[in-house]
Design goal:
- The chain is an alpha/beta fold.
- The chain has 3 domains: 299 residues, 3-Layer(aba) Sandwich (Rossmann fold); 110 residues, Domain 2, N(10)-formyltetrahydrofolate synthetase (2-Layer Sandwich); 82 residues, Formyltetrahydrofolate synthetase, domain 3 (Roll), CATH 3.10.410.10.
- It is 34% helix and 18% strand.
- Strands 1, 2, 3, 4, 5, 6, 14, 15, 16, 17, 18 and 19 form a 12-stranded mixed beta sheet that branches.
- The protein is globular and about 70 Å long.
- The two termini are 16 Å apart.
Length: 556
Amino acid sequence: MKKALVPIQDVARKLGIPEEYFEQVGRHSGKVRLELLADASLKRRGKLILVSATTPTASGEGKTVTAIGLTQALALLGKKVVITSREPSLGPVFGMKGGAAGGGLSQIEPSEKINLHFTGDFHAISSAHNLLAALIDAHLFHGNDLHLDPERIFWPRAVDMNDRALRRIAVALDSKKDGGGRKTGFVITAASEIMAIVALAKDRQDLRKRLEGIVVGVTRGGKPVRAKDLNAVGGMMALLTETILPNLAQTTDGTPAFVHAGPFANIAHGNSSILADQIALKLADYVVTESGFGADIGMEKFMDIKCRYSGLQPDVVVLVATVRALKMHGGGPKVVAGKPLNAAYTDKNVALLQAGLPNLERHIRNIRSFGVPVVVAVNSFATDTDEEIEVIRKAAVAAGAEGAYKCSHWAHGGAGARELAEAVVAAANKPKAFKFLYPVENSIKAKIEAIAKFYGADGVDYAPEAEAKVALYTKLGFDKLPICMAKTHLSFTDKPDIKGAPTGFRLPIRDIRASVGAGFLYPLVGAMRTMPGLPTRPVFFDVDLDLKTGKVKGLF
């Protein structure tokens, strides 16, 4: 049974946040001021634990709930601990996936508010993004003094909703000025460069520098035009003044939680903010953070982008696996979010499970290639058998993991992940030899091909548009930026239906885009889109408001 939420001021005191650095927002959330980072009296330097996963089914494998359960379990062991998590996007909340604040007895609360508007950070990011977009078209209308090429403007608009109809649009249809009727589009807010900037900024000065560096397009002569050239940065900074402050919340048992920034991992870099991690590490002995989707996506970006810009290194990676996902990778039938599971996933089938183990094994080897120890968390469901979980344990240890542990945190909270927590503490204190996947000084293609090899690909095929972007970005001096692959999270390949640990495939790159302010290039792999669409029956059909209590119902 859930405990009643405690006042957020009590959570702040539990974490040891000095009163002058905390601003309450409602009864159960608040903002932490950045001045805390300069306080020399706060001398803790906690261990950083990264939670990732094997390649998931369309329903997800409980990575967020496992990160929360692990945090709760560490608190039960007497550790001073905090979780740093991303804020959910309304796209998946109202689309196929539903809420993203955990579940059962391992949730971050107040979950309904977190899954909806929370402290308004997403709205502020959308507003800052669209302020710049509006200014671009206003600049074209008022004479285009910068000689922007309307055919080579890279900055779209943004909205926090799955809306495929906005992928390609035309704007200024009533204008005969330069740029009238030009084609553009929308990205989902989680894929906005400003979302990535908020997540990667180390302080206000760094936020401003990154916003200034946003490249919105090029002139007719081929020179980059940046946000600072349009005098856009002051207004964006004003909109983001509160957004840059991490949000404090709590788990179902009152353990402190930071919820800040929400970049998608299959489109952007997929990790919560550097600032939340840095503040948490000054306050706690253990900080649990989660990267989006599988270890080939969010974890690789955590290592090669977030660690590169923050100077942080994880002390251990927890790899979440489930019996059902590994059975899918062994050849099980398609899993459709929101629909009942096929009996292949609920009945005991050791042979099908064993056929899917190469996916687990590849992820373990990939994590170890960064020089960091791995612990496997088996997020268990009621239909899993002890024999199946033992098969996973043996395979995980043989592949190089420190161990694999059955977890029941959804049903039992922290008590259901206690054994995992004990193993994580032991692994976090082991020596590590952290290293990046590639040197950032390498060419654009060399970095892309290093990541493709990490996926298991034999090589990379570049479409003409991608080749042109390689040449352009190299000429403009953007070639020394790290790479943020925009790729399906459902497969090591570009094709969601190819499961397991495939080899002998080639990775198609159809285009490459530049988030220069955020500090990365992002290749579009295959059919990957930066604006998702709604399914035939979106989950928000079940969401409504209780007119008597004023509470949201049907949100999960």
